[in-house]
User: Which sequence fits this backbone?
């Protein structure tokens, strides 16, 4: 089922420390797939993504604001598919401060201290959120 | 040509992957990938797409041909992105299923120490059942391992154009 806001049910998946995947597209029409350390719940209509490196993703969303994000809910045995639209980038303030603290914790836990550094919190408007359960069966 | 070092990474170490496409309106879409293999020509890759993630896939590929595939080894985070053009798609073959089984076991061994309390079938189920094989010709390969060199184009090398 798809909604146009972030349901409460998604919040544990956003906090589980499992990296999310983000797909963007350049103005020239080339898709780009990248791993995102953190998807932060701002409010039911907005999510913030960590901007750690100067990257193709950052360039893409400033050319073409649409983004696809897949969040893994390992406890709920599902994926969440988010359709997002880039709104703004924040380099200070409460959203940035909380994300910076969480990024440092993720970096410490994954041996990435000194590599992960939050440069900005990019805030996106939620266009849709859909839960996709894992298949009940395995290929083999 | 996909370099030998990266072929070995794909065949022996990588354990998670995700693909990206876009539609005519430049709206991106993502597709979980359960397995992959390098073509005999060394220039193409086949991505085995999970059955829950085929929405918009074929219409986008037949409409514009753009395909990107990011493949990672967890937990080292060594990551490469392959960009290219769609060639064809087909139903799964037995050898595809065998590849997915090997990757699922590789993934399970990698995450087991981290999720020691997680039920085995939950961890194995993270690698979803695939339903479709998408072959594409690789034009560019980017390093995406986290760090300052992330985003560097490896194939063709960036220095050739400087």
Assistant:
């Amino acid at each position: 089922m798809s909604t146009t806001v972030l349901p409460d049910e998604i919040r544990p998946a956003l906090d589980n420390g499992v990296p999310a995947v983000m797909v963007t597209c350049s103005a020239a029409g080339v898709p780009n797939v990248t791993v995102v350390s953190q998807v932060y719940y701002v409010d039911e209509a907005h999510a913030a993504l960590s901007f750690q490196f100067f990257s193709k993703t950052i360039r893409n969303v400033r050319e073409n604001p649409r983004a696809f994000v897949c969040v893994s809910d390992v406890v709920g045995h599902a994926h969440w598919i988010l359709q997002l639209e880039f709104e703004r980038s924040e380099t200070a303030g409460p959203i940035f401060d909380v994300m910076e603290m969480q990024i440092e914790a993720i970096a410490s836990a994954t041996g990435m201290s000194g590599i992960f550094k939050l440069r900005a919190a990019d805030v996106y408007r939620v266009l849709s959120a859909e839960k996709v359960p894992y298949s009940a069966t395995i290929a083999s | 040509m996909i370099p030998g070092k990266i072929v070995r990474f794909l065949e022996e170490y990588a354990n998670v992957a995700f693909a990206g496409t876009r539609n005519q309106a430049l709206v991106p879409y993502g597709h979980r990938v359960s397995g992959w293999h390098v073509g005999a020509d060394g220039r193409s890759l086949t991505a085995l797409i999970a059955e829950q993630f085929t929405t918009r896939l074929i219409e986008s590929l037949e409409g514009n041909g753009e395909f990107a595939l990011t493949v990672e080894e967890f937990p080292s985070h060594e990551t490469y992105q392959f960009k290219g053009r769609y060639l064809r798609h087909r139903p799964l073959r037995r050898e595809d299923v065998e590849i997915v089984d090997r990757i699922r076991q590789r993934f399970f061994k990698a995450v087991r120490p981290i999720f020691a309390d997680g039920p085995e079938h939950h961890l194995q189920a993270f690698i979803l059942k695939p339903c479709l094989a998408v072959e594409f010709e690789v034009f560019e390969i980017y390093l995406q391992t986290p760090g300052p060199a992330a985003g560097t184009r490896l194939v063709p090398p960036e220095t050739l154009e400087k």
Observations:
- Chain A touches chain B through 42 residues (CB under 8 Å).
- Chain A has a mean pLDDT of 88.
- Helices of chain A lie at 11-14, 56-63, 94-109.
